[in-house]
Amino acid sequence: MPASEIAAAPPRVAVLIPCYNEEVAVPRVVAAFRAALPAAMIFVYDNNSKDGTVAAARAAGAVVRTEGLQGKGHVVRRMFADIEADAYVLVDGDDTYDATAAPAMLRLLFGNRLDMVTGVRVTPEEVAAAAYRRGHQFGNAVLTGMVRWVFGDRISDMLSGYRVFSRRFVKSFPALASGFETETEFTVHALELKLPVGELPSAYKERPAGSTSKLNTYRDGFRILRTILTLVQRERPLMFFSVAGGLLLLLAVVLAVPLVKTFLATGLVPRLPTAVLATGLVLLSFLAFVCGLILDTVTRGRQEAKRIAYLAVPGPEFEPAE
């Protein structure tokens, strides 16, 4: 086929919908994305649903597959490995995201040759309380703020479940998470490798009647926080261990100051165990700093390897539709 025909061929777009017990909502999601992206292939990956999710998704016209390992992260890993496309639209199967935003997100991805476009959730006042609970908003703001402070101020809604990815991103993404913390992984991976990313506002609405949320505010919030701390330790080891070493050193100084005052006044060290503890804390603080230096070098090598894997996948060559 001539190069001009290849360049003119429309991009292959895959809509990826992970589902667990979404019998009520998933037919609406499939229909909405079929209308918004008529040429796209729509895949629903069922994650051990106990209701009629599989039958409902198949009846709606989606290609239905299954993933046995429980958790959204496992489903995302399987979808990214299985499906071949030029762009991937990832959306939850709960019918809370606006399918009509997908074409604009794809135009932004291809037009600016980005690797990830996030649908930033915008909730109308009249449905805000039901669609986006106050506790979830606060948690998202805190967790997003932590990631922005550590990895870069280029995102505003880290936990959005509505994303568009390039093939280059999908085929080089490690996908190590098992649950809802996979969104954190997306964001940190993009920021850490300094990939080109973008955002577009997207309406966020309440779930349809009869469907229930699978997100546990406290349990999943804790898991996301733990994932952030793990990623900081893994990707910013010098910062992580320097903070740990600094706290140990501060504690040692607090313990040692009274001992030093007593020693200067009397020439005695009456609390020998405290003196030994303070000395040990100082040694541990320096050890933490050295560990940070060593692991920082290792992390640098891992980042170079991930960058090479990313560059091994051809980037998008499509122009935005007029």
Topology:
Blueprint: H1 3-8, E1 13-19, H2 26-36, E2 41-46, H3 53-59, E3 63-66, H4 72-82, E4 87-90, H5 102-111, E5 116-122, H6 128-131, H7 134-151, E6 163-166, H8 167-170, H9 182-192, E7 197-203, H10 217-235, H11 237-266, H12 272-311
Parallel strand pairs: 1-2, 1-4, 2-3, 5-7
Antiparallel strand pairs: 4-6, 5-6
Question: Can you give me a brief rundown of this structure?
Answer:
The protein has 322 residues and is α/β, with parallel strands linked by helices. The protein has helices at 3-8, 26-36, 53-59, 72-82, 102-111, 128-131, 134-151, 167-170, 182-192, 217-235, 237-266, 272-311; strands at 13-19, 41-46, 63-66, 87-90, 116-122, 163-166, 197-203.
Your description of this structure?
By secondary structure, the chain is of the alpha/beta class. The chain contains twelve helices and seven strands. The chain has helices at 3-8, 26-36, 53-59, 72-82, 102-111, 128-131, 134-151, 167-170, 182-192, 217-235, 237-266, 272-311; strands at 13-19, 41-46, 63-66, 87-90, 116-122, 163-166, 197-203.
CATH fold type of the largest domain: Spore Coat Polysaccharide Biosynthesis Protein SpsA, Chain A
Percentage of residues in helical conformation = 40-55%
Mean pLDDT: 86
Q: Roughly how many Å is the radius of gyration?
A: 24 Å
* Number of self-contained structural domains: 2
**What portion of residues belong to β-strands?**
5-15%
Oligomer: single chain
CATH class placement of the largest domain: Alpha Beta
Distance between the termini: 24 Å
Q: How many H/I helical runs?
A: 12
- Category by helix and strand content: alpha/beta
| Uncertain regions spanning at least 5 consecutive residues | 126-131
What is the strand tally? 7
Quick one: biggest sheet? 7 strands, mixed
Shape: elongated
H-E order: HEHEHEHEHEHHEHHEHHH
CATH level-four homologous superfamily name of the largest domain: Spore Coat Polysaccharide Biosynthesis Protein SpsA, Chain A
